[in-house]
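Summary for the lay section of the report: proteins are chains of building blocks that fold into shapes. Here we show the chain for Phosphoribosyltransferase domain-containing protein and then a coded description of the shape we predicted for it.
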Amino acid sequence: MEKIKNFAWNILFPKFCANCGAEGTYLCPDCLSLIEIFERQYCPFCFSSRAVADGKTCRHCHRTKKLNGLFCATSYDNFIVKKIICQLKYEPFVRELARPLSSLIITHLAFLKKQSFFENCLLIPIPLHIKKHKFRGFNQAEEIAKKLSSALKIPINDKALIKIKKTPAQTELNNKKRRENIKNVFLCKQPETIKNRRIILVDDVFTTGSTMEEVAITLKKSGAREVWGIAVARSRLN
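The coded shape description reads as follows.
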């Protein structure tokens, strides 16, 4: 029955590659081959390939942060990755693009061979403010997290964390203003669900880490043991 349903859906709403327009998939094999998937884990703050954050302090940049570490699939500098993420987040808001983006993360994690790391973890997507959620119709981080939850068999909680203040977009802000913009805007509504657990935050793009760092502060104050991040792409301010 499910196969018949999917067949009918594909006839009514055929899939096209978000980059080149080839029919049959949202990211065709040719375009996928142009995306470099990271095969190593990097420090989320200095992005050194020589030193991975050890959970508290990076051995290379010596920065101590609340975010214990980051898993990131690829670079936001890749024009195909940027194009797909923009089509997901901005008009025309193609919700289905969360699937190929999550597959990039899954491939990255397969390279790292860290399946045991995710045992007994909890996925939490970075929340949107309710007004932005209503405008877009969905939370792109939540859509990616759902795909990861299904593929990796990791539970997800999209109700534990909320954004209580509407803020300007981080895109045009420098590092300092990003930290100020996002300060004290998250609230953990279900501390009992995260207490003493390893939390994996999910988002589409990681730039300075201001958002994930602020969420990590909130969750650790509420009892989380560790807070790690997962992002599709890594971007850096110029």
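Put simply, here is one thing we learned. The mean pLDDT is 88.
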